[in-house]
Write a structure and sequence with these properties.
- The strands form six sheets. This protein has a six-stranded mixed sheet with strand order 5-6-7-3-8-9, sandwiched between helices.
- The protein has helices at about 45-55, 85-90, 100-110, 125-135, 155-165, 175-185, 205-235, 245-260, 320-330, 365-370, 385-390, 410-420, 440-450, 460-470, 490-495, 535-560, 565-570, 570-605; strands at about 5-15, 20-30, 35-40, 60-65, 70-75, 140-145, 170-175, 185-190, 195-200, 280-295, 295-305, 310-315, 335-340, 350, 375-380, 380-385, 425-430, 455-460, 470-475, 480-485, 510-515, 520.
- The protein folds into four domains: about 5-205, P-loop containing nucleotide triphosphate hydrolases (Rossmann fold), CATH 3.40.50; about 210-260; about 280-520, 3-Layer(aba) Sandwich (Rossmann fold); about 535-605, Helix Hairpins, CATH 1.10.287.380.
- The chain starts with 6 loop residues before the first strand and ends with a helix.
- The chain is built from 18 helices and 22 strands.
């Protein structure tokens, strides 16, 4: 028999202003559940999580928490008042029976000592301290709102492993696809004020969501056709049968009301980037570049060429100097030694992710227009600010909204809107994915795929790096940076290890840099001259396996395209969905293995 839910929300309704934010949202959490809560920016995810935590009282609905159940909520902006150190802040959240050693263990695991003054913490350090406070008591329920924001890759991967080993039931809100796929077993979708539940993890969500939208569109067409038929009857038949058909006339009015009140899917962002004339073939060339601050080397002996159309991802732990490296490569900072040459006709377009770049007193329209105008220059053409705002999912009413009252996701969209309106052929994006909803991330990815210029991307989002970049430049410590072909997963496969915390040296078996920047064999092991027999056989047979998996995937997708399948046979629909998820995972693994072997073969033969 299934265990009773620890937490239940039923029919939660809450209105801010005129439009209901929540209009009948449900959430149920049993012991051991791993649920991701997804939805567009502004859909009410954070608010629903606060209702679950007991921090917000809904207008309607029921919240039930099993007696004795402990709940911890990760706030976006923790309150450190009254605490002299981060350790006292974490310990204040623990109960009499909790193990106090966990406070210091978690702080140290997250890169803090426990002696930091909370008033002097950076955004990333504040998030780490708040995470330690939420995790330390090992509660029955963990409610985590964007836990990976401001964390670097080592911290994200540590948190992922820590949560996998946790006994707590989890509800996660995150824009990090890889994080959600690794941890979630069920998905709650908050859309237009109500919730839908899928008893599968995030990897199955997007296909399911698209099916829901397609079914809604079909139902919308049916409603429109029915209204048209009833209106035709009203024009030509109501006079002769007035008394007998009053009920039918009332039904038509009801259909019209349904059509008026129907809330379709929230509009999608339309992202375009302004470009100037094309740059030359060479965009940036760095030769033996070095930069230090005091005794600490940031960049040492770096030689790198960035050509037109390249997509370079820069990764590393916090504090390794990624922003400094970007400033060196774009000519905004002079090196201590070496030379950086920026090519002809290169025009920089920079997205600065520091929230301080936005004046909280200015309005959305003023940020986009510069003030004193109602037009935005996009790609050399003038556009009305309201139309341009709509491209980025802002309503006309928000034109005079002060920046200070926008949500984190809205501020990030505003930064994107401002940066992408500026003309350039070298686009530099510093952590563009923070606080963006998944649909906007998809559109940003598509826009970057169509962008004819050159891209430099700094990000901790592993999935986004895999989808967007073709080269990854990773910090190896002590100012050394090494370039690897492919995305983040390709870098891990070649290097043998992911991004490590600052000051940690890569394991002995990890790839090292040669004079040309290519990996060489680990010390103490003879260099391979060709692939082994098993590797050759695998490389030969993998294309056939990939083709078979692609064929199976096409058949499964065709089966799921049947709009009546779910209604006719829900069990078969779920079985096919699970098989499709497994097939896609096997296909991705086979493609990655083929790429790894093919690159190994080319390297050995070259």
């Amino acid at each position: 028999m299934a265990a009773p839910p620890l937490l239940t929300l039923q029919g939660i309704a809450l209105t801010f202003g005129g439009t209901p934010l929540l209009a009948g949202a449900d959430l149920s959490l049993a012991p051991g559940d791993r649920t991701c809560l997804v939805g567009r920016n502004g859909s009410g995810k954070s608010t629903l999580l606060k209702v679950a935590a007991g921090l917000v009282e809904p207008d309607k609905g029921v919240r039930f928490l099993q007696p004795g159940t402990t709940v911890r909520y990760l706030a976006q902006e923790p309150d450190f008042s009254g605490h002299a150190t981060t350790l006292s802040f974490v310990e204040a959240g623990m109960g009499p029976g909790d193990e106090l050693y966990r406070a210091r263990y978690l702080l140290e695991s997250l890169g803090l000592t426990g002696e930091e003054d909370p008033s002097r913490l950076s955004g990333g350090e504040s998030r780490r301290a708040a995470l330690a406070q939420a995790l330390a008591p090992e509660p029955d329920i963990l409610l985590l709102d964007e836990p990976t924001n401001h964390l670097d890759l080592p911290a994200i991967e540590w948190l992922e492993a820590e949560l996998k080993g946790s006994r707590s039931a989890l509800v996660l809100i995150s824009h990090d696809r890889r994080f959600l796929e690794a941890l979630s077993r069920s998905t709650v979708w908050l859309d237009r004020g109500t919730t839908r539940r899928l008893d599968q993890g995030f990897s199955a969500f997007e296909g399911w969501r698209d099916q829901v939208f397609e079914e809604e569109e079909r139902e919308r067409h049916k409603l429109d056709r029915k209204i048209a038929a009833e209106e035709d009857w009203l024009r030509y038949g109501v006079t002769a049968r007035r008394k007998r058909n009053v009920k039918r006339l009332a039904g038509l009015h009801d259909l019209r009301r349904q059509a008026r009140e129907h809330r379709g899917p929230v509009g999608t962002a339309t992202l375009t980037v302004s470009e100037t004339e094309a740059s030359g073939t060479l965009v940036v060339e760095a030769r033996d570049v070095a930069k230090s601050y005091g005794e600490r080397p940031i960049v040492r002996d770096l030689s790198l060429r960035i050509a037109k159309g390249d997509r370079l991802g820069i990764v590393g732990a916090n504090g390794t100097g990624k922003t400094t490296l970007v400033n060196l490569l774009t000519g905004r900072l002079a090196p201590d030694s070496g030379e950086v040459k920026v090519g002809a006709n290169v025009t920089l377009n920079l997205l600065d992710q520091r929230r301080s770049a936005l004046d909280p007193e200015r309005t959305v329209a003023d940020v986009l227009t510069g003030g004193g105008s109602d037009s935005v220059q996009v790609g050399g053409q003038s556009r009305h600010v309201i139309g341009y705002m709509k491209d980025f999912l802002f309503s006309p009413e928000q034109a005079r909204t002060p920046v200070g009252v926008l949500s984190g996701g809205e501020r990030n969209r505003l930064l994107l809107a401002r940066a992408l309106a500026e003309a350039g052929n070298l686009l530099v994006l510093d952590e563009p994915t923070n606080d963006l909803d998944l649909e906007t991330l998809d559109l940003l990815q598509e826009m970057l795929g169509d962008y004819a210029g050159t891209l430099i991307l700094v990000s901790h989002d592993r999935d986004f790096l895999d989808r967007v970049v073709d080269t990854v430049l990773v910090s190896e410590g002590e100012g050394r940076w090494v370039a690897y072909a492919g995305g983040y997963s390709d870098m891990v496969a070649q290097r043998g290890v992911g991004v490590q915390a600052r000051g940690v040296v890569a394991p002995k078996g990890a790839a090292k840099e040669t004079a040309k920047g290519a990996p060489k064999p680990a010390a103490g092991r003879p260099a391979k001259k060709r692939l082994g027999f098993n590797e050759q056989h695998e490389l030969k047979t993998l294309p056939g396996r990939i083709a078979a998996l692609e064929g199976n995937r096409a058949k499964l997708r065709a089966a799921l395209d049947d709009p009546t399948l779910y209604a006719r046979d829900p069990a078969r629909f779920e079985a096919i969905s699970r098989t499709l998820a497994t097939t896609e995972a096997d296909l991705a693994s086979a493609e990655e293995r083929w790429l790894e072997l093919e690159m190994m073969r080319e390297e050995l033969e070259g």
